Amino acid sequence: MTLNGKTPNEVYYHRYAANAKPRIETRPKVKHSTPCAKPRMCIAGKNGTKIKLRLEFLEGRLYLPIIHIERI
Question: Is the separation of the CB atoms in 47 and 25 below 8 Å?
Fold first, then answer.
């Protein structure tokens, strides 16, 4: 049985598949065309986008990380 690249959570809650959403590309020289990769992904913005990562932990528990990503 296939879920067409979706996780069970995405199928059950009728969410858009995360692997089909536009991605932020931080590598400055990567090509936009990816003929061998499926599904093909759109790139949000320009190549070489700078991002800031902030890490927190839920209730101070080191095994429950919360990752925040921001474009700079």
Answer: yes
Q: Where are the beta strands (DSSP E) in 1-72?
A: 51-57, 65-71
Phi (first) and psi of residue 6, to 5 degrees: -95, 155
pTM confidence score: 0.51
Token pair 């065309």 in the structure block, residue: 33
Please state the three-class secondary structure of the chain as a single string: CCCCCCCHHHHHCCCCCHHHCCECCCCCCCCCCCCCCCCCCCECCCCCCCEEEEEEEHHHCCCCEEEEEEEC
Question: In the beta sheet, which residues pair with residue 52?
Answer: 70
- Return left, alpha or beta for 17; rule: phi > 0 is left, psi -120 to 50 is alpha, else beta: beta
Model pLDDT, residue 40: 67
